[in-house]
């Protein structure tokens, strides 16, 4: 766990006035990294501050912020070169940015000409995927979620398979279809076979779902053939994003045995545009829940691995107001991101800068804390009320909006992670 320093001082204010509002996701204590562009410009690296973005590419060009000394890391439109610098440089850059934005620092504050270029309203920018996703692995780390799904797909007495309480279960997903918030998602086609059907047929998924997850962004590599400790895994973690692992339940239930999900989760994964750093989250760390079975020692953690992060899901039917349909917390995860990463590298699997680990759907103990429609509607049995409509699974035109924030002496927000469902396309036919 990173040390607390002056960047966590709750009394610290910024000269960017909107950052000092109590309900801002992006106070000076947060400073999440992202990539933005304006008009037709090229993508640039930034941090969020209040309702503005601070252009780090510009400040590096001017020599005002130089995390890599004479080398440049903010010029490629992606955060990977900066992440490759490692945790000491991440922390040093955070301190430097906080100093620049501090209410008492005149350098930018009193230079209107500089500010006009360095600060841009978030309303006027387009956000991009903040990093090049090297690999995407999705875990299954919520005991409540795994129990709910196992109860539905198998039986309540066989809900958790025997390995679940010993291993952070995961599968290797697709990096190619990880997209930034705001990207539309096309309803997938797939092989479908109901329990009464003799044979499968081809068609659009009728059980399209979201999964509320926390994404961990790996900022440092590990060597092939070399396991890592949980302390090393913690140091390798650059930060976290909200993640929606869109899932087609009817495709999934027919394809998932024996090797796990394949196409049913590979057609789209949406992440929020802001990477909230491990440094910013340091005051909100909490231990994982009590162990049901003792873990093998390589998974023990010396410092609390979970985050007390409140999470919400809104569903907005086409043309209607959004309605909150689930509220949960990332502290319910049974395995932390560092435990997931440690287990991932145990066999000698090499980790890369820009790897993305999904936590798995985050469900809590209450019915309203379930992080997917599969669980909220209990596989379609109990329709979910959405304003004056109901849903069992997603319909075309529906938007799903994830939100997350830590709340203490100040608020560390993640912004939103949003996507809208487009109707299925037709199978292409040969001419
Ligand atoms: Mn998932």
> How does the overall form come out from the CA principal axes?
globular
* Rg over alpha carbons: 22 Å
CATH class of the largest domain, please? Answer: Alpha Beta
Judged by helices, strands and strand pairing, the structural class is alpha+beta
Helix content: 10-25%
Strand content: 25-35%
Q: Alpha-carbon distance between the termini? A: 59 Å
Largest sheet: 8 strands, mixed
Architecture of the largest domain, according to CATH? Alpha-Beta Complex
The count of helical stretches stands at 11
CATH topology of the largest domain: Fumarylacetoacetate hydrolase, domain 2
Relevant CATH superfamily of the largest domain: Fumarylacetoacetase-like, C-terminal domain
Q: Which whole number gives the mean pLDDT? A: 97
Domains (count): 2
Ligands present? manganese (II) ion
Number of strands: 26
Task: Give the structure's gist in a few sentences.
This protein is α+β, with helices and mostly antiparallel strands. The protein has helices at 56-61, 80-83, 87-101, 106-109, 112-118, 143-153, 230-236, 249-255, 278-281, 337-345, 373-376, and strands at residues 33-37, 44-49, 52-55, 119-121, 126-128, 136-139, 170-172, 178-180, 185-186, 189-192, 201-204, 208-209, 212-218, 237-245, 247-248, 269-271, 276-277, 285-286, 306-307, 310-316, 323-329, 355-358, 384-386, 389-391, 399-407, 411-422.
């Amino acid at each position: 766990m990173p040390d607390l320093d002056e960047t966590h001082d709750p009394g610290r204010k910024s000269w960017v006035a909107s950052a000092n509002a109590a309900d801002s996701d992006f106070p000076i204590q947060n400073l999440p990294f992202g990539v933005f562009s304006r008009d037709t410009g090229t993508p640039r690296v930034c941090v969020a501050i209040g309702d503005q973005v601070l252009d780090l590419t510009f400040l590096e060009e001017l020599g005002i912020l130089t995390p890599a000394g004479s080398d440049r890391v903010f010029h490629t439109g992606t955060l990977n070169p900066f992440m490759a610098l490692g945790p000491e440089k991440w922390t040093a850059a955070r301190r430097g940015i906080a100093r620049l934005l501090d209410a008492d620092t005149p350098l930018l504050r009193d230079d209107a000409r500089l500010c006009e270029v360095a600060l841009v309203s978030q309303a006027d920018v387009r956000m991009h995927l903040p990093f090049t996703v090297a690999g995407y692995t999705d875990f299954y780390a919520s005991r409540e979620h795994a129990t709910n799904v196992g109860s539905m797909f198998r039986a309540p007495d066989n809900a958790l398979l025997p390995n679940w309480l010993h291993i952070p279960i995961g599968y290797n997903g697709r990096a190619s279809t990880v997209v930034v918030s705001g990207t539309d998602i096309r309803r997938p086609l797939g092989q479908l076979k109901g329990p009464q059907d003799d044979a499968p047929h081809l068609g659009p998924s009728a059980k399209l779902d979201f999964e509320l997850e926390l994404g961990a962004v790996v900022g440092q590599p590990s060597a092939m053939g070399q396991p890592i400790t949980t302390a090393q895994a913690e140091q390798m973690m650059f930060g976290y994003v909200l993640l929606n692992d869109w899932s087609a339940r009817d495709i999934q239930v027919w394809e998932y045995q024996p090797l796990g999900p394949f196409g049913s989760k590979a057609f789209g994964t949406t992440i929020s545009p802001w990477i909230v750093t491990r440094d910013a989250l340091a005051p909100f760390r909490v231990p994982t829940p009590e162990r049901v079975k003792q873990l093998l020692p390589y998974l023990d953690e010396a410092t609390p691995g979970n985050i007390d992060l409140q999470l919400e899901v809104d569903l907005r039917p086409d043309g209607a107001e959004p309605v909150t349909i689930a509220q949960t917390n990332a502290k319910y995860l049974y395995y932390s991101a560092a435990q997931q990463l440690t287990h991932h590298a145990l066999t000698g699997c090499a980790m890369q800068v820009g790897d993305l680990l999904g936590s798995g759907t985050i469900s809590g103990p209450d019915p309203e804390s379930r992080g997917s429609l599969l669980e909220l509607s209990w596989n379609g049995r109990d329709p979910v009320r959405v304003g004056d409509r109901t849903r069992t699974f997603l319909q075309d035109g529906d938007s799903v909006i994830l939100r997350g924030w830590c709340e203490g002496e100040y608020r560390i927000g993640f912004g939103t992670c949003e996507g809208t469902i487009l109707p299925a396309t037709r199978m292409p036919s040969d001419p």
